Amino acid sequence: MQDLKELNEVITAIKEEIRQGADALTTSKSVYEFKKTFLDNKQGRIGLLMKEMRNVANDQKAEFGKTINGAKEWANNFFDELDQKLKEKEQQQRYESEKIDITMPPVKIRYGNLHPVTTVRNQLTDIFTSMGFEVYEGTEIETDYYNFTALNTPQDHPARDMQDTFYLSPEFLLRTQTSAGQVHVMEAKKPPIKVVSPGKVFRSDDDATHSPMFSQMEGLVVDEGITLCDLKGMLDMFVQRIFGEQTKTRLRPSYFPFTEPSVEVDVSCFQCGGKGCRLCKETGWIEVLGAGVVNKKVLENCGIDSNKYSGFAFGLGLERIAMLKYGINNIKMLFESDLRVLDQIDD
Ligand code: PHE
């Protein structure tokens, strides 16, 4: 190449080549590669034109150089613009592909919740601890002595028939009542005593409202001058907190070997307010627990002076409370872990 005319022709051809080649480019990366073939300082086609300078007449050298630089500038601008356009397009495409359809219904998140019996146990424990009770957890395997004999129910006592027992050996059994814990507490601790004891108990009993394994909560208060009135007062407070402020209690005479007198405690029906409904079997009252004044013989069995001290005890079934609270009519529903049932019970 020797003169400007020829240079201009070459440059015009290169520009045309760039324009046409650019049509096929779709990504910013391909622009970069394509650009390099023209503008790379060593290999680039436009850059290489500078080498022709030595064949050009001296008076044309300046113009020759300027023309090449002009072409370089043009190509740089051309590629910059193209690059910019493709980058915008790429970004647009990314926006499109990452677009979130906010009208889509969300995937339902399932939250777990505590089992209704656990919830009831926690609620009761909260109520009693706020009244100053300590929590004692006994063991599920007991000896005949703690479960029965110390509780004034010796071997041949007819009251043993009230609780059909799973014996592990003549001496050991699965406790039939959390009352067994009373004896341990009174043996270990001298009055004043104020404990609740939640836990599993076992009886060979199985129907819609009974299960071979169920949960109880025992309460025991022993101090000087404790009477049935203290029991009634405490129970009134307790049932109001668990079933609502309007709830009243009623004591009916009953029998337990370890309490004297013994009572069965009813609460006014929290569903109908006492008028009579299905829940309370039209009576206006619902039985919730057994209780009484601790039998002097039991205090003595535990080494507590029954002339100085007296106490009251109560025991309630946690499944029964959960069934009443949540309107469950078959105790099995609490043990089958059917999420359709458990999902509906969230307190
Ligand atoms: N242990 C008795 C039962 O399981 C309930 C109870 C406890 C009664 C404490 C009186 C005092 O039926």
TrEMBL record:
<dbReference type="GO" id="GO:0005737">
    <property type="term" value="C:cytoplasm"/>
</dbReference>
<comment type="similarity">
    <text>Belongs to the class-II aminoacyl-tRNA synthetase family. Phe-tRNA synthetase alpha subunit type 1 subfamily.</text>
</comment>
<dbReference type="GO" id="GO:0005524">
    <property type="term" value="F:ATP binding"/>
</dbReference>
<dbReference type="Pfam" id="PF01409">
    <property type="entry name" value="tRNA-synt_2d"/>
</dbReference>
<keyword id="KW-0030">Aminoacyl-tRNA synthetase</keyword>
<dbReference type="GO" id="GO:0016740">
    <property type="term" value="F:transferase activity"/>
</dbReference>
<keyword id="KW-0963">Cytoplasm</keyword>
<keyword id="KW-0436">Ligase</keyword>
<dbReference type="GO" id="GO:0000049">
    <property type="term" value="F:tRNA binding"/>
</dbReference>
<comment type="subunit">
    <text>Tetramer of two alpha and two beta subunits.</text>
</comment>
<dbReference type="InterPro" id="IPR022911">
    <property type="entry name" value="Phe_tRNA_ligase_alpha1_bac"/>
</dbReference>
<dbReference type="InterPro" id="IPR004529">
    <property type="entry name" value="Phe-tRNA-synth_IIc_asu"/>
</dbReference>
<protein>
    <recommendedName>
        <fullName>Phenylalanine--tRNA ligase alpha subunit</fullName>
        <ecNumber>6.1.1.20</ecNumber>
    </recommendedName>
</protein>
<dbReference type="InterPro" id="IPR010978">
    <property type="entry name" value="tRNA-bd_arm"/>
</dbReference>
<dbReference type="GO" id="GO:0000287">
    <property type="term" value="F:magnesium ion binding"/>
</dbReference>
<keyword id="KW-0479">Metal-binding</keyword>
<keyword id="KW-0648">Protein biosynthesis</keyword>
<feature type="domain" description="Aminoacyl-transfer RNA synthetases class-II family profile">
    <location>
        <begin position="118"/>
        <end position="336"/>
    </location>
</feature>
<keyword id="KW-0460">Magnesium</keyword>
<dbReference type="InterPro" id="IPR004188">
    <property type="entry name" value="Phe-tRNA_ligase_II_N"/>
</dbReference>
<dbReference type="GO" id="GO:0006432">
    <property type="term" value="P:phenylalanyl-tRNA aminoacylation"/>
</dbReference>
<dbReference type="InterPro" id="IPR045864">
    <property type="entry name" value="aa-tRNA-synth_II/BPL/LPL"/>
</dbReference>
<dbReference type="GO" id="GO:0140096">
    <property type="term" value="F:catalytic activity, acting on a protein"/>
</dbReference>
<dbReference type="InterPro" id="IPR006195">
    <property type="entry name" value="aa-tRNA-synth_II"/>
</dbReference>
<dbReference type="Pfam" id="PF02912">
    <property type="entry name" value="Phe_tRNA-synt_N"/>
</dbReference>
<keyword id="KW-0547">Nucleotide-binding</keyword>
<dbReference type="GO" id="GO:0004826">
    <property type="term" value="F:phenylalanine-tRNA ligase activity"/>
</dbReference>
<dbReference type="InterPro" id="IPR002319">
    <property type="entry name" value="Phenylalanyl-tRNA_Synthase"/>
</dbReference>
<feature type="binding site">
    <location>
        <position position="260"/>
    </location>
    <ligand>
        <name>Mg(2+)</name>
    </ligand>
</feature>
<keyword id="KW-0067">ATP-binding</keyword>
